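Hello again,

I reread your note about wanting to compare the complex against the isolated chains. To keep things tidy I'm splitting this into two emails, and this first one only covers the full assembly. Below are the input lines as submitted, including protein chains and any nucleic acid or small-molecule components. They are followed by the predicted structure of everything together. The single-chain runs will come separately.
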Amino acid sequence: MQVPLELDERADDYIRHYPDDQKRSATLPLLHLLQEEYGYITEEAVDWVAMKLELEPINVLEVVTFYPGLRQTAPGKYHIRVCRTLSCAMAGCHETMDKFCEIAGIDRSTVSHHNPIAVSEDGKFSIEYAECLASCGTGPVCLIGDDFHESVEPKDVKGLINKYD
Amino acid sequence: MASVKYIKGKEPHKCEYRMIFRNVDRQGWDPSIKSYLSDGGYKELKKALKMKPQEVTDAVKASGLRGRGGAGFPTGVKWGFIPPNNTKPIYLICNCDESEPGTFKDRYIVHQDPHQLIEGMLISCYAVGAKVAYIYIREEFPEGAKILEKAIEEARSKKYLGNKILGKNFDCEIYVHRGAGAYICGEETGLIESLEGKRPYPRIKPPYFPAALGLYMCPTIVNNVESLCHVKHVIAMGGEKYAQIGTPRNTGTRILCVSGDVINPGYFEVEVGKITMGELIYEVCGGLKKGRKLKGVIPGGSSAKVLSAEDSYKIGTGDSERVIGIEDIPMDFDTMAACGSMAGSGGVIVMDDSRDMAWILNNINTFYAHESCGQCTPCREGSLWMKKITDRMISGSGVPSDLKTLTSIGDNIAGRTICAFGEACAWPTQSFVAKFPGDFIKHTKPRNARKQLNPESKIAAAGLKT
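Full-complex prediction:
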């Protein structure tokens, strides 16, 4: 896999954060770089990180498959994460989730533990539940890309989607 | 204190004692180093660098500061566990994985006052002899990670980071390391594995106490964001003076995060133990919604055992022993433990009488089933079983024996795992079923009373077809 030069340099910067004989520590930072660039972690990306850090690809793959924050399938242009955990659930996050799906045209019926992300037909939006986004006082909350939104009631969803559409 | 003005509508409650959150929601404040320096920032670092490292540790010990991440272990004592004859590099890690449901305090420190954290970390690094520190920040704070990286750049350009800090013989670097969305990374040894680039499987203690065998098998101190910020204030006022805030053995302030069924949820920094549960809910948070009664409270993050509003609690020993209601429980580490729960991470989740506790527990069980790292069998299997049973109960297929089964699964996880996740996932089930049995019984029907199964599901139930 050929990555942009700038990304390669940023990867080298991250590797320098750790002792010379502990390059493996840069696994997560490098995977984040690739996910930001390509939207998700491909097989080639796993190989690239392994090559860069002098590891076996399995050492990288086991990390990718463990963490919910690393995606193995392509998300939509805007990826939505709705907090599912207690305080947000008490504040009505399931209704918010339903509204997001209705307005963005997403069918979540195929979602499973190993395939948590559902994408709209036009590929513009994708959605998944996240566990506790740590803003329990202002639930329901969600992340759209890197943007954080608080108190997202079903009535607010349309306006929010329009902002990104 | 009086000179600080807050954004309209976000003023602290009069019960609050703002120390760590002094600059949160402050008028005209931003997370830049300019704001911080104009307010006397990095003054405490200068003061600390004039002391001997051991003197800094002694001040933290004298302050009685207890870790704010969940376990409430004395910070100064933790620092003292680094082997005295150590020759390996020493690391400091800031645990900014804030992932306990109900807790949302570190978010505001990182987003609004990052330099307070960096100053606290630098003082702590100096005390324990660490030249490199990492801030392990959860992946769900992408903005926070950028703010911290910028703050570190700013601090470096002002020579608060790097070599020969402030002209003293003290070198230190801080790096931001982003997690990837796993709750278990809040467990310190899991966090260390994650930082090493592996799956975050917690290590067994002993022998892997981080202060002796931590990151890269070197002595490592892992402290919570809030605890590290407190270090700055300990240096500012001196250990003994700091110890006068709060109550004996429960010193200082702590940030309580209230969510759930109250009128005004939010974060409130109070002196430890100086406020009761009732004052917190009814005065500070504006009480419950109209016409509602208190049913239960989870006092320290979702893994803390639930307290029922119906119960009475025995606190104190000897002559000072007394029986109190839930509203009179002081919010401190020791009393909360005496009441059979824990002050944990300060996340208070309030539930009123409109809530079905089986539904609440099912939500919590779903969380723990998703977040178990899978290393120990009792936790990996048990957390999922508990979730499956509560799932089944709230969808109308519960049986009377489910209560016993749930409790028995919980009993068989707690104490049988490498890390405290086992207890964290068992305690909610054990306590909810014990304290609110009625809410669970109403979801059950004897097996023979369940509706007639159709032929197809009969075959499936008999295991003939799956």
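For quick reference: The mean pLDDT of chain B is 94.

B.
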